[in-house]
Specification:
Helix content: 40-55%
Distance between the termini: 57 Å
Number of strands: 3
Shape: extended
Order of helices and strands: HEHEHHEH
Oligomer: single chain
Number of helices: 5
Strand order of the largest sheet: 1-2-3
Structural class: alpha+beta
Length: 118
Amino acid sequence: MSPTPVEDAVRSKARTLKPSTLEIYNDSAQHAHHKAMQGSISQETHFRIVITSDAFKSKMQPARHRMVYALLKEELDRTGGIHALQLKTRTPQEEESQLARERVEREQAAAEAEKNHG
């Protein structure tokens, strides 16, 4: 038996979207002390998921999130299942645009630092 059965199920079900990027962060330990988590039977309750997939093309964020919620319905509905789910859903084109913006920002910051210290 895996020590992370919920995370394993999330990963398996998310793969049905054929993601080019799939990052799953189990943030449950950071929330274990919260009052709502007292008495919880699960150690896997809080997740952040970053998923890049062509399946999201031509869909707005709410529709994308509904797709993921539908995939994870069982894990969300189960007692002791997922209590909080943060999603970042994007297409490969959106991901590439974001990465390009981040590169430009890093280059600008490096140039500014060079200018100020040079």
